[in-house]
Write a structure and sequence with these properties.
heterodimer, A: 4-stranded antiparallel beta sheet, B: mainly alpha, 59% helix
């Protein structure tokens, strides 16, 4: 007998499982309409690839999950797409979301499916691709895309198959294991092959499902796989939580904020395993699942095979649902399921149970009383948290304390709420607090970014100022020294070569420097100076634009503009007077030099891409901007024009070369303007 | 079809705060029976009067605070406070002692802090300490147990008990020192000498006539509550263990300096009432298991120190109140190690 570990806490609510096990598994008939949400999984929604009026076949891909974490959606029968629109979703919030609505033609005609007789001929990436194509997402309730979970590059030592089904009432996985154990074991073998033969394969089933355990054990025996073991776990909610199951089977804890894969463990629900097998073997996409329809408000309680997209109301009618006797309608189990507000919402890939308990089974919630800190919640918590402390902190909105007490390790299993003698809806408090903290963190990230940008900007300005002051001092000191040298009649000492010209001390200094440092360095330096001066100038001009309603400020800014212009002029002069031992030194040429190496490494395509992105970004900004902000809009429009111009240039210039570099150099100034305007606008936004 | 939006979980265990409190009330019965058997009906009167006062005060405050009165009264917490205080007060103490103590407990110690769940100190013990400090003579006169009454003395009947409470008729002959008093003023006698000379011990097996049975009664009630999982074993067991260890350490072979044996301390005064009914009050004690161990053990140590070297014969109330002060501090440093964390970080959560 394998050693099992206990988990802290846990509860033993009434199981109510026999209610739905009295009848055999049947197929639910075709509903008059099929509503397929594009987001039935965790991650990015899939994108519809059919149009209204299209004829689709059963199993045909109708929305494709293009993002890394997403899942495909397939038609669950043949028919006509009659709408692609927002419809009520089965979601705790009762919100609407994009759905593809199909009117079945009744023929239930299959599309062609790519079957595969021996998956061992395929490489793991090809297998993953098949699982991904079939749109398989965790069927235990979370709906995480299976291909992503299986595609972890880490070496997996332990494959855990989750058949615990610890929630009361639900028997969908139980029924699945009883009826399709052989195929589940084949699926496990497939995953084992895909994960490059993990050291151990553990199939965890709670010991309140003796028939499922027997079926799985005999299937494993038949398969003759030595590394595979069916383990009966003591019944205790929430043994089926991924973290809890890992702890019970291996004695290890998944470090907070990490994934099981980082311990070399992968968990998969039995239904998911079977779906993955059918996807690889028969090319069958996931569009049908076993759902437990249970609760005393149904006259007929049982497990049914339901097509994904079947409206819940259709399932209810088929099982004699009596709304007068139901205290609520729940998708999922009584511990973690959520109440359905609109029964027109459809069954989705994660719908393992539709529960309509009677008022006796699930009386309306009682009004909460004061917390007496009895600590029953802490005794029940499987994550060893202190729920009542979390409750106080949640009520005080003390986010620091909540985080310090590991609010985010709460798996929302509901054990604390279940045992609370004061009927406090603890989990609800935690959910709300988590939402608040997430929102707060996002806000903080934004403001941090803005502050950092502002600080960097300030730093740059300070540095420039300091550099200018230093240069001026040095120049004055040198000029003084030179004057002293000239005044003192020192025989035998050769005068500096350019001394005769007796230009301004500044220039003389520059020339003296030029002898020591390579001229290009100096040019680059001056060039940078010029750019920053121009940058400053454009920013000030922009500011002037914004402050035209307050004359005092405008005057001040005008004065500063004048000053900036003088600086710019001076630098330009300095540049012009550099020794002309090389090609004429212009800002443009310098910039060309600066850009060249970068240009060489970067094909013009990349440049175009970059500009393209810039354009999109700026356009978005323009769309987002407050309509009242005419100046901002004008500035952004200008920026867009500039980018478009540059894009044109980049396109016409073709491949990388000096000409493009020149072009870019000439654009540096306008770049600076664009950047400056964008910065100002951003700053405004933050202030808003 | 209009459907209610209710958040998970959709199942709930059957217990409620009222049930918990009713269990506690039920568990005081063995101790109450022992008290009544050995000391007469005084305690019963205390409890009845305290209960009436507590419910009246509670209802009045709830009304003033504009809370639903019936809803809050149904949590039975006021009754529990009243019963615990009634058990702790000397039988046949004047009626106004009971009224002052109970109203202090409910009004000052409970509702001024925000009501049930918000009080930092155990209300019954606050009431008790206020009385003990304000009226020391009335509070330290205990009736003699039935078994040590002399020739011609009889137990006080229900009517004379009432007269004693309401008219304060003097009954000096009926009251005397408790075993703890005797040990405090043992004038150089060894433990053996005390046990051999005092009627209270001659009529007893371990720790003084009547008292040992009262304590065993509360122990039985406490074990019942443990069995019913009203609280965990950590606080009472650690408290009794540390009290026993202190007594064993300072037993000194039963010399004239001895503070008494562990058995004597376990079965004397309010030890068992304190361990199972007072220190386990969840509102005012430490939260985590480790915290409860520290909380209980320190109460045991304080209890022994004040009993043996302090000015008061018994010290459950002081020891518990002192640790009520410390409970948040203990909580701060005993946050349990959470799932997936290397170790608990004191004070910051794990």
């Amino acid at each position: 007998m394998r050693k099992l570990w206990d988990i802290p806490g846990g509860i033993h609510p009434p199981e109510h499982k026999e209610q739905s096990l009295g009848r055999s598994l049947i197929d639910l008939p075709l509903p008059p309409i099929i509503v397929l949400p594009v987001s039935q999984h965790l991650g990015a929604p899939a994108e519809p690839i059919v149009a209204v009026g299209d004829k689709v076949l059963k199993g045909q891909l109708i929305a494709s999950g293009n993002e890394t974490i997403s899942a495909n959606v397939h038609a669950s029968t043949s028919g006509i797409v009659i709408a692609i629109e927002e419809r009520p979703l089965p979601h705790p919030s009762g919100m609407n979301g994009l759905c593809i609505v199909i009117e079945p033609d009744g023929a239930d005609q299959w599309t062609e499916l790519p079957s595969c007789n021996d998956y061992r001929q395929l490489e793991p990436p090809a297998l993953l691709e098949r699982i991904q194509a079939a749109g398989i997402a965790g069927m235990g309730g979370a709906g995480f895309p299976t291909a992503v979970k299986l595609g972890s590059p880490l070496k997996i030592e332990t494959l855990i198959v989750n058949g615990t089904e610890c929630e009361p009432y639900i028997t969908a996985d139980d029924m699945l294991m009883q009826t399709q154990a052989t195929d589940i074991v084949r699926g496990i073998e497939l995953l084992s092959f895909l994960l490059k033969e993990p050291r151990e394969i553990l199939i965890g089933i709670e010991d309140n499902k003796p028939r499922a355990i027997a079926a799985m054990e005999s299937a494993v025996k038949e398969a003759g796989n030595e590394g595979m073991e069916v383990i009966a776990l003591p019944t205790k909610y929430p043994s089926g939580g991924e973290k809890q199951l890992v702890q019970m089977l291996t004695g290890r804890e998944i470090p907070s904020g990490k994934l099981p894969a980082q311990l070399g463990i992968v968990c998969q629900n039995v239904a998911t395993v079977l779906a993955a097998y059918r996807a690889v073997r028969f090319g069958e996409p996931l569009f049908e699942r076993i759902t437990t329809v249970t609760g005393e408000a149904f006259t007929e309680q049982r497990n049914v095979k339901v097509r994904v997209g079947t409206p819940i109301s259709f399932v209810l009618r088929a099982h004699g649902y009596d709304p007068k006797h139901a205290s609520r309608l729940v998708m999922g189990g009584p511990m973690m399921g959520f109440s359905i507000i609109n029964p027109e919402a459809p069954v989705i890939k994660t719908t393992n149970c539709l529960l309509a308990p009677s008022l006796q089974e699930s009386p309306p919630p009682q009004p909460p009383q004061a917390c007496i800190r009895c600590g029953l919640c802490a005794e029940a918590c499987p994550a060893s948290l202190l729920p009542q402390q979390l409750y106080w902190y949640a009520r005080a909105e003390d986010q620091e304390k909540l985080k310090a007490h590991n609010l985010f390790d709460c798996i929302e299993c509901g054990a604390c709420s279940y045992v609370c003698p004061s009927h406090i809806p603890l989990v609800q408090f935690y959910r709300a607090a988590k939402g608040d903290i997430r929102r707060h963190d996002i806000d903080k990230k934004h403001s941090d970014r803005a502050r950092k940008r502002f600080e960097l900007h300030k730093e740059r300005i300070e540095a420039e100022k300091a550099a200018r002051a230093k240069a001026r001092e040095e120049a004055q000191a040198k000029a003084k020294q030179r004057n002293r040298e000239k005044a003192a009649p020192t025989a035998g000492k050769k005068a500096p070569p350019n001394d005769a010209n007796d230009k301004a001390s500044l220039v003389a200094d520059a020339v003296a420097k030029a002898k020591q440092a390579p001229v290009t360095d100096q040019k680059a330096k001056l060039e940078r100076k010029l750019l920053s001066a121009n940058d400053r100038l454009s920013k000030l001009k922009q500011k002037l634009l914004e402050t035209e309603h307050s004359p005092d400020q405008a005057d001040a800014i005008r004065a500063r503009i004048k000053e900036a212009e003088l600086v710019s002029e001076a630098v330009r002069n300095q540049l012009a007077e550099l020794p002309k031992d090389k090609a004429p030194v212009t800002p443009k040429a310098l910039a060309v030099d600066a850009v060249k190496p970068e240009q060489a490494a970067e094909p013009s395509d990349a440049l175009q891409n970059e500009l393209q992105q810039q354009l999109v970004l700026t356009r978005k900004k323009l769309a987002d901007i407050d309509p009242a902000d005419h100046d901002g809009a004008a500035a952004l429009q200008l920026a867009i024009n500039v980018i478009v111009q540059k894009l044109e240039n980049a396109k016409t210039q073709g491949p990388a070369g000096t000409s493009t570099a020149t072009e870019r150099a000439s654009n540096i100034e306008s770049d600076a303007i664009t950047a400056a305007m964008a910065r100002t606008l951003d700053k405004d936004k933050v202030q808003d | 079809m209009a459907l209610p939006q209710i958040t998970s979980p959709h199942a709930h265990s059957q217990n409620s705060t009222g049930d918990v409190m009713r269990l506690v009330l039920l568990a005081t019965l063995p101790g109450l029976i022992a008290l009544t058997h050995f000391f007469g009906p005084g305690t019963l009167y205390n409890i009845v009067l305290a209960s009436i006062t507590a419910v009246t005060c509670e209802a009045a405050v709830l009304k003033l605070r504009q809370r639903p009165v019936a809803f809050y009264l149904r949590d039975y917490s006021a009754l529990v406070t009243a019963v615990l205080l009634g058990l702790a007060l000397p039988p046949y103490c004047p009626w106004w002692i009971v009224v002052v103590g109970t109203s202090t407990a409910i009004l000052l110690a409970k509702h001024l802090y925000g009501g049930l769940g918000y009080n930092p100190f155990n209300p019954a013990m606050v009431g008790y300490v206020v009385l003990l400090i304000s009226f020391p003579i009335d509070m330290t006169q205990w009736a003699l147990p039935r078994t040590v009454l002399e020739e011609g003395q009889t137990m006080m009947g229900p009517l004379s008990a009432l007269a004693r409470m309401w008219l304060e008729t003097p009954v000096d002959a009926y009251s005397g020192a408790t075993p703890l008093d005797l040990f405090k003023h043992h004038d150089g006698e060894t433990v053996q000498q005390i046990y051999a000379s005092e009627a209270l011990f001659l009529e007893a097996r371990w720790a003084g006539a009547g008292w040992e049975w009262v304590n065993l009664g509360f122990l039985a009630g406490g074990v019942y509550l443990l069995y019913k999982k009203v609280f965990t074993w950590h606080t009472p067991v650690s408290m009794l263990l540390s009290l026993g260890l202190m007594a064993a350490f300072f037993y000194d072979g039963g010399s004239s300096n001895s503070g008494g044996s562990p058995i004597f301390h376990w079965l004397s005064g309010g030890t068992m009432l304190g361990a199972f009914f007072i220190a386990t009050d969840p509102v005012t004690s430490a939260t985590s298991r480790r915290g409860k161990l520290i909380f209980g053990a320190t109460i045991g140590v304080l209890l022994y120190i004040i009993r043996t070297w302090g000015n008061y014969p018994d010290a459950v109330a002081f020891a518990v109140l002192l640790m009520n002060f410390a409970a948040p501090f203990i909580d701060y440093y005993t946050v349990p190690r959470g799932y997936g964390h290397e170790k608990s970080r004191p004070g910051r959560g794990s």
